[in-house]
Amino acid sequence: MAAAATMAAAARELVLRAGASDMEEEEGPLGGGPGLQEPLQIGELDITSDEFILDEVDVHIQANLEDELVKEALKTGVDLRHYSKQVELELQQIEQKSIRDYIQESENIASLHNQITACDAVLERMEQMLGAFQSDLSSISSEIRTLQEQSGAMNIRLRNRQAVRGKLGELVDGLVVPSALVTAILEAPVTEPRFLEQLQELDAKAAAVREQEARGTAACADVRGVLDRLRVKAVTKIREFILQKIYSFRKPMTNYQIPQTALLKYRFFYQFLLGNERATAKEIRDEYVETLSKIYLSYYRSYLGRLMKVQYEEVAEKDDLMGVEDTAKKDILRNTIFTLGTRGSVISPAELEAPILVPHTAQRGEQRYPFEALFRSQHYALLDNSCREYLFICEFFVVSGPAAHDLFHAVMGRTLSMTQKHLESYLVDCYDAIAVFLCIHIVLRFRNITAKRDVPALDRYWEQVLALLWPRFELILEMNVQSVRSTDPQRLGGLDTRPHYITRRYAEFSSALVSINQTIPNERTMQLLGQLQVEVENFVLRVAAEFSSRKEQLVFLINNYDMMLGVLMERAADDSKEVESFQQLLNARTQEFIEELLSPPFGGLVAFVKEAEALIERGQAERLRGEEARVTQLIRGFGSSWKSSVESLSQDVMRSFTNFRNGTSIIQGALTQLIQLYHRFHRVLSQPQLRALPARAELINIHHLMVELKKHKPNF
Predict the structure, then answer these.
(1) Which end of the chain, N or C, is surrounded by fewer C-beta atoms within 10 Å?
(2) Can you say how many angstroms the Cα of residue 563 is from the centroid of all Cα atoms in its chain?
(3) CA angle, 377 as apex, 371 and 380 as ends, to 5°?
(4) How far apart are alpha carbons 268 and 197 in whole angstroms?
């Protein structure tokens, strides 16, 4: 019933909002019909209020006029009174129907009300239960936090106890001396692996005890006595073993490399002594230094003495210089002083690190060697043993850097000093420049080898050896330069156009030094060779001046330049300064000789061609008309004598030059120049002033001349 009343009130309110009761006798404001289908929406307009404003009324009216229902009602002309009654009737019907529906559903509504009441009771009990649960959870949360705090504290205590246990365990393990260690140190031989293992364990325990004693650990006193007794026993056994190995070096004919290799297997023994008994370690090191230094000194003194007995008996002396007169020692001088031959192989990679010479074997085979071969063998033995000794010292005695250098020189110093003094005494009377130069390059290569082996201990020795060799080499070279400079050609006996023996010595000597120097270039060597070359060139010019004719002078110069160039090109590079210099000298003298060679048979032709070309160049060709008789004589003279002249020229050249290849080249150059001369003669005769000369018909065809001259070219 209450719902029906509510719906009826709502319907009435709708009608009142339309204002139907106020408009029963009036027309619409827009002149519409007598009623509308929808009520006019004028809002909550209060016309009794003092705040009534006409503008607001206009706004409400305008808004209601825009309503779709109002627009439709105004268009169709609905009667609002009739429509209002109809709505009222419908509302009453709906109200009655709603009342009947509510009456029919009253039992269900009552049942629903009872159910809702029951649900409210259930929800209230659940609310009470959840409140209790919330209270319990709050207490449980506080208990969990308490447990977490207790767990964290227990975890910290556990970690602390574990840390203490680990430290304590390490301390106990480091202090406790096991029976296996005691048994091995006291009873096992030092060469057994278990002795070495337990010695390392003993060293670790001794170090641990020293560390703990420094920290004030009282438990160290319980094991100090045991460890000291074991240490003394181990030091005693190790000392006896190492000294026994060192004393074995002293036995005659002992290969000391074998005991050294054995000692390297037990290098921890010395490390143990160094950490636990420094006095014994110093004793062993001093004994090793004393023993090995004597052994090396004795070995190398004996080896040097026996090695020098297999040197060539004939060696260069003070007077065996490049500028001295040739004697019966010529062959020896060439083979051992000025000629390299096979001596250069001593610095080849294969020969440089070849096995050392065995003197008694060489003596049985009556073999002899030059000094550089002995020097190579001696210093290769020194290099090999020094490298091995240095590496052994660094590894066994646990040293490096300056300490390793000092210990090495304590062992090898006397031997190196003895070897250096022996070299110094030998160089005083050495005049073999090639031997000294080869020794220099041997040292340079050995220095590179020691650098590759990472053994810097010999660097100072190599520098000292080079400081002996370089000045001696420069002195010998300057002596040879001076000997050539002071040589008087008139004191050398009879003159000959063949290559002089002094220039041959220079060629062999210079090519030897140049070929050696190319491997490791040195500017000082090139400067000294340049001085020697200047003196040799001056000497050749002085000797050539002794010949009476220019032709003989040129033959002598060409033969000597050609010989020196040929020898240099065999060993030196083609682009070396020496080769280039002598090539230029040879070309210049060869050209001059060809002109000198062509002058007697063809001098008139040469003179006429040069004069005619000069007149033509100056524009005075008309003066050639007065030379017709001379030209005719030249044409007929050349045609009648050129063959015999060429034949004589060829024979003269082949007699004058010892090098057939050079003679052939000179003949070919002379014939080529002759063809060019005759071709120039043809061009002069083609001038208008001489073109009508009858003798031109007797000219030899240039191509025919070329064919004929080729027949005179010698072949070898």
Answers:
(1) C
(2) 45
(3) 130
(4) 10
In order of 181, 428, 602, 655, the CA distances from 163 in angstroms are 28, 77, 118, 108
Q: What is the 3-state secondary structure (H, E, C) of 605-636?
A: HHHHHHHHHHHHHHCCHHHHHHHHHHHHHHHH
d(CA 404, CA 362): 37
Residue with tokens 């270039």: 521
Asked whether the predicted pLDDT for residue 704 surpasses 50, the reply is yes
Domain ranges of the chain: 179-276, 308-546, 597-712
Query: Which of 186, 180, 181 lies closest to 236 in space, CA to CA?
Result: 186
The answer to whether residues 185 and 231 touch, using CB atoms and an 8 Å cutoff, is no
Spell out the residues 6+ positions from residue 432 whose beta carbon is closer than 8 angstroms to its own: 315, 316, 336, 337, 370, 371, 476
Residues 6+ apart with CB under 8 A from 32: 73, 74, 77
Q: How far is CA 117 from CA 114, 120, 326, in A?
A: 5, 5, 152
The single-letter DSSP state of residue 221 is H
Place of tokens 């709708």: 14
Q: Which of 432, 511, 515 is nearest to 475 (CA)?
A: 432
pLDDT at 134: 86
> Is pLDDT above 80 for 223?
no
- Per DSSP, the residues of 437-451 read HHHHHHHHHHHHHHH
Instruction: For residue 442, give every residue at least 6 positions away whose Cβ sits within 8 Å of its Cβ, in sequence order, or none.
Output: 346, 347, 352, 372, 375, 376, 379
> Given this model, what pLDDT does residue 574 score?
65
What single-letter amino acid sits at 320? D
pLDDT at 151 over 70: yes
Beta carbons of 337 and 483 less than 8 angstroms apart = no
Query: Which residue in 688, 555, 676 sits closest to 605, CA to CA?
Result: 676
Residues 561-593 have pLDDT tens digits of 988 888 888 876 666 777 888 889 989 999 988
In the numeric block, which tokens belong to residue 682? 């043809």
What's the CA gap between 535 and 487, in Å, rounded? 10
Query: Are the CB atoms for 230 and 177 separated by under 8 Å?
Result: yes
Alpha helices in 176-266, H assignment, sequence order: 179-187, 193-215, 220-248, 257-265
Residue 661 has pLDDT above 50, yes or no: yes
Q: Considering Cα of 271, then 275, then 281, then 285, what sign does the dihedral take? A: positive
| Tokens describing residue 264 | 């390297």
Tell me the residue type at 146.
T
* Residues belonging to the chain: 716
Q: What are the structure tokens assigned to 563, written together?
A: 């010989």
- Contact status, residue 459 vs residue 447, Cβ threshold 8 Å: yes
Mean pLDDT score, 146-173 = 80
Tokens 């049942």, residue located = 111
Q: Please name the residues in contact with 525: beta carbons below 8 A apart, sequence gap of 6 or more.
A: 437, 513, 517
pLDDT digits (tens, 9 = 90+) for 387-399: 999 999 999 999 9
- CA-wise closest residue to 624 among 685, 667, 567, 675: 685
pLDDT for res 32 = 38
Instruction: Give the separation between CA 638 and CA 645, rounded to whole angstroms.
Output: 9
pLDDT over 90, % of the chain: 27
Whether the Cβ atoms of residue 631 and residue 696 lie closer than 8 Å to each other: no
Would you say 484 and 506 are in contact if contact means Cβ atoms under 8 Å apart?
A: yes
Phi and psi (nearest 5°) for 369? -135, 150
DSSP3 helix / strand / coil % (the chain, rounded to 5): 80, 0, 20
Q: Are 221 and 175 in contact (CB under 8 A)?
A: no
